[in-house]
Amino acid sequence: MSIFEYNGSALIAMVGKNCFAIASDRRLGVQLQTIATDFQRIYKIHDKVFLGLSGLATDAQTLYQRLMFRHKLYQLREERDMKPETFASLVSAILYEKRFGPYFCQPVIAGLGDEDKPFICTMDSIGAKELAKDFVVAGTASESLYGACEAMFKPDMEPEELFEIVSQALLSSVDRDCLSGWGGHIYVVTPTEVRERILKGRMD
Amino acid sequence: MECVFGLVGNGFAIVVADTSAVHSILVHKSNEDKIMVLDSHKLIAASGEPGDRVHFTEYIQKNVALYQFRNGIPLTTAAAANFTRGELATALRKNPYSVNILMAGYDKEIGPSLYYIDYIATLHKVDKGAFGYGSYFSLSMMDRHFHSGMSLEEAIDLVDKCIIEIRSRLVVAPPNFVIKIVDKDGAREYAWRESIKDASVVSA
Known about the structure:
The complex is a heterodimer.
Chain A: E1 10-15, E2 20-25, E3 28-30, E4 33-36, E5 42-46, E6 49-55, H1 57-78, H2 84-97, E7 105-112, E8 118-123, E9 129-132, E10 135-139, H3 142-152, H4 159-174, E11 184-189, E12 194-199
Helix pairs in contact in A: 3-4
Chain B: E1 4-8, E2 12-18, E3 21-23, E4 26-29, E5 35-39, E6 42-48, H1 50-71, H2 77-92, E7 99-107, E8 111-117, E9 123-126, E10 128-131, H3 135-145, H4 152-169, E11 177-183, E12 186-193
Antiparallel strand pairs in B: 1-2, 1-10, 2-11, 3-4, 5-6, 6-7, 7-8, 8-9, 11-12
Helix pairs in contact in B: 3-4
């Protein structure tokens, strides 16, 4: 089994009309055994930038701590929050630093940039950025997620519809993957508010 | 094979560990205490390589004591767990420790808590956790009978059910177990469950 599949994970980020949604599954496993069903994979860097980390859980936790540290230093120096594009470049640089001994994570970054324009991107474990205009996916269920998102995506969705689409795409994809699932955790972010919701799916 | 498990009850946390020290096919001793009292209100139940287990838990214990000497107040359970994870994560890509840890503690404002820390430094706060081959039996038993806010009698009953299950279903089941508890009155040994007593030394 690959090291990326040791803990199991599923992540989606999708763009809507002046908003975005980022969602993850909730399972923490050790290969075939499930340890917890309330594991957090999505972290808030600041009000308008969210980071999801799939892959090896220990590296996701270490990476989150390092990135939070860098962002807090940035806030102290620049007296403002990082733009999502800048944050993505930071993540990419930090991952490439470990080119020959990498963190076994695939991050998904979602945020509202200048003029609250939604921004999403993903990258591989050594920091190769992949910008997208519609959706990005990561994790053990990524192939199913690509299919579900491609089928269900429409441009310029309102937050409520975006929430429905992302939830359905996530839940149907993780049902085809034994290493991810046990519910979902979704954030729908607009310029004025962040709505966090827990989804109940097939608990198996 | 080493069996460690634990759960959180109403105002207390319990951890249980087997007490066999095994080297290949030989049982060196069957009253080895694998649950270290970290400080007045914390317990560490550790399983893994015997040298690493003793060395690493003693290192954590001394550093927790040092913090208390330097700062005049004890660490919270969450802080101690995060410190432990940090030490494991730093050593992971240099000189890894093969130790799995369940850290149980009681804090005055927060109450009891249990932290699952993998040997690759995956940290998660849980209500019930287990390591080793015994986890296949004890986790299932706890999934069936655990509910939040169990009384001490109910929890000990569940612990005994788990021990019976391990003894009857695991092929190289350890004969003896030690149960330790932490609550507002501190961390202490609760009971032993012995099915084989070490033969007493014959006097000359």
